[in-house]
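Weekly puzzle thread! Below is a chain. First person to post its structure in token form gets bragging rights.
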Amino acid sequence: MIPLMRVAAVLATLLAFGGCANRPARPDYSQFRSEAPRSILVVPVINRTVDVNAPDYFLATIARPLAERGYYVFPVNMVKSVMSDDGLSDANLVHSGDPRRLGEIFGTDAIMYISIERWDAKYVVLSTSVTVELNYVLKSAHTGQELWKNHQLIVYSPQANNGGGVAGLVANAIAAAITKASPNYIPLAKQANAKAIDLKGSGLPAGPYDALFGKDAADY
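Winning reply:
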């Protein structure tokens, strides 16, 4: 008979390997730490949705969380205007271009590229779900190398907390109709930004204008 202690050790080893297999790989921050960007330029976002207003609404949400994380963020409206005057109004062309050119124009350390993958509200019977999906990529304005990336998918269903019965069905129908008629994407965009930028282990390390700058290496 196999000793009980040996069986326990084998099980513990298997559980440890199982936990490692399911754990997402930790991002590599070595290049980010090496360059230690102080300023971030947010370029016009790529819009892969049918909502033509999505880019403008989203851009209104991104500067503040980056600034609160300790980075200087170029005013997004000023950037958009300057880039348009310089023939860089097409977001797809900007994203496929050389980050170093933007670094020369604006004098920034890093470029934030964001694409909106989903920005929609879907109605099914008595429920509506509002979805915001975003991809974030930060590149060096000095070398063009990727420094950081993130992906966020936020789904909100306002009917999830309503009660059952006839009254619940009526409440669901009303809530779904209101949400479908006028979905509010801004809170979801803000939530996505917060998870992307602030979450320990996958977000952005504290910038030079944050009190934690240089002290959060263990988290990233």
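Puzzle host: Confirmed. Bonus trivia for everyone else. Residues 61 and 190 are 6 Å apart (CA to CA).
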